[in-house]
Design a protein that fits this description.
By secondary structure, the protein is an alpha+beta fold. Among the domains are: about 120 residues, Orthogonal Bundle (Arc Repressor Mutant, subunit A); about 130 residues, 3-Layer(aba) Sandwich (Rossmann fold), CATH 3.40.50. About 50% of the residues lie in helices and about 15% in strands. It has a five-stranded antiparallel beta sheet, with helices on one face. Strands 9-8-10-11-12 form a five-stranded mixed beta sheet. A two-stranded antiparallel sheet has the order 5-6. The longest helix is centred in the middle third of the chain and has 29 residues. InterPro entries: OmpR/PhoB-type_DNA-bd, Sig_transdc_resp-reg_C-effctor, TPR-like_helical_dom_sf, WH-like_DNA-bd_sf. One of its GO terms (molecular function) is DNA binding. Pfam families: Trans_reg_C. This is Transcriptional regulator CadC. It comes from Aliivibrio finisterrensis.
Amino acid sequence: MVGICFQINDWTLVIEENKLYRQDREVSVEPRLVNLLQFLAQHSGEVFCRDELIKHVWDGAFVTDQVVTQSVFELRKILRDGRLDNTRYLVTVPKRGYKLVAETHQVRLEDTPYWKPCDGAKLPLENVVSSDGDSQDIHQHQETESQSVLPFPAAPLTRSVTAISDHVNSEKKKQGESFNSLHRWKLLAFDGFLILVLIAVIFSVTYQQTSTHITKAIDTDLIEFTFHTSRNDNNETESLADGISQKLMADLASIGDYRVQLNKTTFTTGILPGKAVNVRVEEQQNKTYLDVEYRSNTSNRVLFSRQYLMTNANLEHVLRQSSLDLMSALNVKITEAEMDRLMLGLPKEHGLLEMLIRANHFINQSDPAEFEQGIDLLEKISLAEPNNDYVLSELYIAYNAFSALNPELDLDDNTTKIEKLSQDLALRYSTLNEEVLPSRIYEALAMIAIKQDNKEVAAEYLTLAFKHRESAFSYILEGKLAELNGNLDKAGDAYSRAFFMDTSLETYMLSENLAFYSDLETVAYFMYRAVNPSEVRLLG
């Protein structure tokens, strides 16, 4: 494959350099993404599922579907390059896989329009052309070079240098004999001065190298929530643990002064959370237990650890009690009335609450199939409790989020469901409602107003949502509203707050595509650089 490249629409993929070129752009691409794009370019127009891509691109290595999904997402971002045109590259074929739909053909390296060899680089010998247009023979070329080299006149020059050196040494010997003691002391003093200067330089450099550089700092008001898989490798309990951790985090964000964030990806920042809450659901001897642990990262000590026996019949009680116990351990004061408000809207029938918790896990996944599984659970709950506005709001937001996370899919049926739910919720709250409602309802109503370009109503509903709690989704809506008002600085701040609370690719894509497209490279540069760290702009 030496010298072979691929022309993909207006991009040129140079495999040897791990780079993409396009007129005034040069982008460095990770090798795993280059391998994936090369394979798809070799089979342009063909559909490959995740398993096939793992087999051919990753050589059957142990790679999860999430790695493939994230790699496809990153390739789309790089190829799209922030443009607003309708040029398509990688598309998702529902229930089948991915395919490259861009115009693709194989080219030679020297024939590419934007690539140029570095200064001093030699082209292959078969491309060396003489003045009459014929290719030169490699042996003739080397022979000509060897004949053009002149011998170096070593012997005369060596004799001259030796004579000069002997003369200098002779003169130094004569001068040395005439040195007096005073002259020698001056030389010693000068040498001592040079030694002192050298010591001072070494001390200064050593001091600078050993000075303290703070790269991490602990924020004692920040709590990180993490769910853990079952020790018995039970995937069913994993979705419960994630949903419960999200519920505990939302409760704490509604009542306390602490700031919260989810631990979902490998993104890192210079700020470490001062406290960590770990949630795990275990099955032991045909019984299900919820384990909640609170650890201080400043002292590395476990300050709270409790286990709750959990069944469908007592699930609401366990959620309420574990939230109360955790707040007590964190010295957060909460009244019974405030706790009652946090439990508003939860399904009452046995089994439906567990379905809601599992749904919250699935609708936080980037994989479309898993996300649709969460939507299916929410639809089943809404059929069982059609007048539950909290569940309808969750479903409305889930529909919109799914469309934003999968902009390349044909979602006409999803659009119809969004419009119907939007009309139903708008009719139920035709006037601004000041009564106490779950924050999720206010967020759904604010989003409906944003999509209808009703900025004043959207601002009022967002104020009510923030009055009860802060959430990553509320900050995304605040960013969208700020963009509609022309305040890009405020929009960038809001998106960054959302990304800080939920540092994930899903938050990035929602900020970019929810309701309308946002150019995050311009609006929220911090987020853009966090997700696109390898991109290099050649021309300013």
